[in-house]
Design goal:
Distance between the termini: 46 Å
Order of helices and strands: HHHHHHHHHHHHHHHH
Largest sheet: none
Number of helices: 16
Strand content: under 5%
């Protein structure tokens, strides 16, 4: 006698399969949600004007500097998560080094390709790849040591940058890294570490902070992370306000900016394009987007940590219904693919959505239409890819395959003891599933 499944069993199985693709058991979906927020927020800063015709900041300036900082902190989380299985075997750096270096090299190559076609954005991927390779040397540090190191780096590195740029009269360069920059390696290194839009000297602190967060059991320290992030935000913004207001810094900077022709309003509210001017140490008191000052770094790091805590809290509260966050978590689970596609698509959509792209970003209506198009394309395509093709994005899967081919990770016997899932507490609670592919 043949048995048949009860009515409704098959749909239930199918729906469970779909939900497990959207919200994989054991994965820190909150990090994916945070990455999705970072991606969509960065698209805001790429498409909308950050200042009005008079020079005052628009609503979009709220995301300036904060979205990219969140993205960088999450990249640090990914570095730890992607090497966890290799480091767990022996805690030897040499076991994780091949996978990190392959991933870093792949990100640099993709970044050089994107920088060669982009005319609208300062592509950050080359910087990320180098920071991954450098941060690898800190993988063995414990969470508390990484938190201390990240905090100290945020305070000291901007001052070191100011000293070096002043001493050698280094001027900022605001061009995306491209293949032809390899012809001038000295200038390229200078831009990458000191004078570019995302100077590695300062931005490495975000990676270190993300590594520290990933070393914790995030779900058990949500309140602590949120309060720490809030404290950093208040210290960064409050410290800048005290120095610029009661301390007299803004008055001094107004005089300096008038003499040098620097737009102080833009530096304070819409962006300094990576580093501050070198005419006065008062510039280190501002907390403007992409100013790379201690107050900018600390406050944006605080915002990033708070966002991560809130996103993971939402996932914990929703429980099995965390798939409701999939419009954010789906693109957030494949940010390298989404970011790269966005860079290319922006070159196509800008002349089509903006009547006269050479005159600026366009009208508010044109900007809104272009942003909605990008957001819709990447949310829907990420959902479809995750549901019907692969849990990893195309670039993430390609890098993961390359790592497996060149540097196979540790093999473990299959069985309940090594399977992650809600019914198996012995399985890993934070599987290696970062944005740039896994081992």
């Amino acid at each position: 006698m043949t048995s048949h499944p009860a009515i409704g069993d098959e749909p239930t199985t199918a729906s469970a399969r779909i939900l497990s693709r959207l919200s994989p058991p054991g994965r820190l979906v909150g990090l994916d949600v945070a990455r999705g927020i970072a991606l969509l927020a960065m698209m805001v800063t790429h498409i909308f004007s950050l200042a009005d015709p008079v020079g005052f900041p628009t609503w979009a300036a709220v995301f300036a500097g904060r979205a990219s900082a969140l993205f960088a902190v999450l990249a640090g989380c990914s570095l730890v998560l992607s090497t966890r299985s290799r480091m767990a075997e022996s805690n030897r750096l040499r076991d994780a080094a091949p996978s990190v270096l392959i991933r870093a090299a792949a990100i640099v190559l993709i970044g050089l390709c994107l920088g060669s076609v982009s005319t609208l954005l300062a592509v950050i991927l080359v910087n990320y790849g180098i920071m991954f390779a450098l941060a690898m040397f800190f993988l063995r540090l414990r969470a508390w040591a990484l938190f201390v190191l990240a905090g100290a780096w945020m305070i000291i590195s901007p001052l070191v940058s100011m000293l070096l740029r002043t001493e050698f009269s280094l001027e900022p360069e605001y061009l995306p890294m491209a293949w032809w920059d390899l012809a001038t390696p000295v200038t390229m290194v200078q831009d990458l570490f000191l004078t570019g839009y995302y100077p590695i000297l300062q931005w490495l602190s975000y990676i270190l902070l993300g590594m520290a967060v990933a070393k914790l059991d995030v779900s058990r320290h949500l309140m602590g992370l949120f309060l720490a992030g809030l404290g950093a935000l208040l210290i960064g913004r409050g410290g800048s306000w005290l120095l610029l207001g009661p301390g007299g810094g803004e008055t001094a900077l107004m005089q300096i900016s008038q003499q040098s022709g620097i737009d102080l309003l833009a530096a304070l509210h819409t962006g300094s394009y990576g580093v501050t001017p070198t005419g006065s140490w008062w510039w280190q008191a501002i907390a403007g987007p992409h100013s790379g000052t201690p107050f900018d770094m600390v406050s944006t790091a605080g915002t990033a940590v708070m966002t991560i805590a809130v996103c993971q809290s939402a996932v914990v509260l929703l429980g099995r219904r965390s798939w409701l966050l999939s419009p954010l978590s789906a693109p957030g689970s494949m940010p390298l693919s989404v970011y790269s596609a966005h860079v290319v698509l922006l070159e196509i959509t800008r002349p089509r959505f903006v009547g006269d792209p050479f005159s600026g970003a366009g009208t508010t209506g044109e900007q809104t239409s272009e942003y909605l198009f990008h957001a819709l394309v990447f949310v829907v395509s990420a959902l479809m890819w995750k549901l019907f093709v692969s849990p990893r994005g195309p670039l993430e899967a390609g890098i993961a395959g390359l790592i497996r081919a060149v540097s196979p990770g540790p093999t473990r016997p299959a069985g309940p003891a090594n399977s992650a899932g809600p019914g198996n507490p012995a399985g890993p609670t934070r599987p290696a599933s970062p944005p740039y592919g896994t081992d």
